[in-house]
Fold this protein.
Amino acid sequence: MIAIDRLLDAACKKNAAELRLEPGRPARIYADGTYRDIDTQALNNEDLDALIRAVTPDVKQTEFATKRQTTFGITHRDAADMQVVLLVRNANPIMIVRPMLH
């Protein structure tokens, strides 16, 4: 199982503008104008569901289940505030995490 903290750490370390998680692909970060795979296996729906549940508050999980999209904020290791976007594309969940600019 891939740990969400490991993925968020990698995104922070690379000053990524985005961390993108979707089934059938390894986790990817967008930095310096290009997407790069993080050294992970391709994610399946079960992996992604577990990663989504790890960071998503219950009320937002319910919203995602009914509306098939939601947005919320998280703080990673008391250092980085991030926006999480959950959506469904082609019947697959997608998780996008971006740093919040203050």
